[in-house]
Each structure stands twice: as C-alpha cells, then as structure tokens.
Amino acid sequence: MIDAKYSWKYLAEKKEDGSINECTRQIAMADVLIVNKTDLISSDDLHELNNTIRSINMSAKVIETSHAKTDLGDILDLNAYGDLSPARLADTFHGRGFSSSDKHIIDKSVTSLTLEVRGLANQGLLDSFLQNVLWERSLQNSHGDTITLYRLKGVICTGDSQPRCVVQAVQELYDFHPTTPWLPGETRTNILVFIGKNLDRDVLEREFKKCITDIS
Prior knowledge:
This protein is of the alpha+beta class. It has helices at about 5-10, 20-30, 45-55, 85-95, 125-135, 200-210, and strands spanning about 1-5, 30-35, 60-65, 110-120, 120, 150-155, 165-170, 175-180, 190-195, 210-215.
C-alpha cells in the first residue's frame, strides 16, 4: 500500500551504499499496488505519482482509494497462472496506462521495459540467459553499469505443441509454469517484462533473441 501524501519522501530517499530505497524496491516487486489517501492530494499530484509508479513497474495493477477501502477481489486470488487469454495478456503487458512520454522518475536507474519477440523459445538457452542476468549479473548496459533485475514476468512459447509457459522471477529466484494451450493459428509470441536497475533495451533484446528460434 502506497501513501499518496507522503510516498514522495520515501521514493526520494537516497541510500549511502547507492542501492535503491525500500519504497522503490517494494513497488518494483508488486503485482498489485494500492495507492491510499488519494483524497489528500490534488488530481495533478495523483497523476504524477501514478506515472512515477508506472516508470518503476509498468505491469502491476494500480488501485486508487482513500481510507484504505479496497475490494478484496482485487487483491486476493490473483490467478497469476490461470487466465492467460489474449485479452488478459494485453491488459497485463500493454493496457495499464503507462505513458513513456508523460512520467516523472525520481530514481532514473530503476525502470521497467517490455520485450516481445515472435518465435519458439529454447528453455535451456532461456535458463542460461536468466541465470546470467539474475545470478551472475554479467550483463552491462551501454554505459558499463551492471544490469540488475528485481522482478521479471512473462509468457513464452517453447514449442508448437506445448502450452504457453509463464516465467516469473524475483531477485535471484525464477521458475517456469505451463498454463493454457495456444489457440489454432495464434501467433507464437514471447513477452518478457523486466523491472530493475540500469536496464538497456538493446542489450536485453540481443541476449533474449539468442534464446529464440524461428524468429519471425
């Protein structure tokens, strides 16, 4: 839960060791974010806060409320592995109001980005890619800074006859989970959402594409 009135102070906190502050870290790792006390700030400030949240975690569901009033259906039984219809995917990865041209980022090193590549994913190569990023931290951005992931989620296709597979990662832990089958004629698309520090689209896309065969 995010305190709409006082969250700016915590988001702007600088740590002596250069690591991200706890408020930013929690936003990056969340599936659902509740912005509370919206009645205490202006609509412009709320808009700016939402854009800041989106800059850190574009895939989380954001709920605005006051006095902590929340429908439990919005935060319980999220069904992370269940409904992965095209409409659900569009909502999760594309349709939650993030605007790259209208945002305020306090810590510009903590961002999120989405990669989408058609084709079939080789799970062994994808394992190596994730281990390099999450465990070895061997990838660097164009400025020579280490790419650090705090959260990753996505859907991959490991074969024409295989069901779509959800991949999720939190810091150094990740797993794959088979879910719903692909529909006849449905385009096999691999989507990954990265949330972390010093992200570099070109570097991550280059390494991700090494895991994909039959790229179209």
